[in-house]
């Protein structure tokens, strides 16, 4: 094995170790996350870690077979994140005027 191949193998091994450590921290954040948004972001990071793991496996094998799978996972992760963000944005939106008693057409104002 030549020197560049040894360096390449060592860097890929380090990348896999970093991905595994990040995955352990990610599972802790999903389990302990204080809010639903923390858990949603953690699931998005989970998709990114799966893509990174597939990329490392593809680099180890020197095989481009996993690239389309990584592309589909990236698209699904993005659309899932956007969907969750829209859901949380709609849920956390302040109430419209007139729906909680402070608008111009409330019964209290009509009586006056």
Written overview of the protein:
The chain has 112 residues and is mainly alpha-helical. 77% of the residues lie in helices and 0% in strands. The chain is built from four helices and no strands. It has helices spanning 3-32, 36-61, 67-91, 107-111. It is elongated and about 75 Å long. The N and C termini lie far apart (90 Å). 0% of the residues are buried.
Helix count equals 4
**Basic shape:** elongated
| Approximate strand percentage | under 5%
- Backbone structural class: mainly alpha
Which whole number gives the mean pLDDT?
A: 83
- The separation of the N and C termini measures 90 Å
Report the count of strand segments: 0
Helix content: over 70%
Radius of gyration from CA coordinates: 24 Å
Taking the sheet with the most strands, its summary is: none
Short synopsis of the structure:
The protein has 112 residues and is mainly alpha-helical.
What are the main properties of this structure?
mainly alpha; 112 residues; single chain; 0% strand
């Amino acid at each position: 094995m030549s020197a560049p191949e040894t360096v390449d193998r060592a860097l890929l091994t380090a990348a896999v170790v970093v991905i595994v450590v990040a995955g352990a921290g990610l599972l802790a954040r999903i389990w302990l996350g204080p809010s639903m948004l923390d858990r949603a972001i953690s699931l998005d990071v989970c998709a990114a870690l799966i893509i990174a793991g597939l990329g490392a496996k593809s680099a180890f094998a020197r095989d481009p077979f996993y690239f389309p799978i990584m592309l589909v996972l990236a698209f699904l992760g993005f659309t899932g994140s956007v969907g969750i963000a829209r859901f949380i944005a709609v849920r956390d939106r302040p109430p419209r005027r007139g729906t909680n008693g402070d608008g111009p057409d409330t019964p209290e104002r009509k009586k006056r």
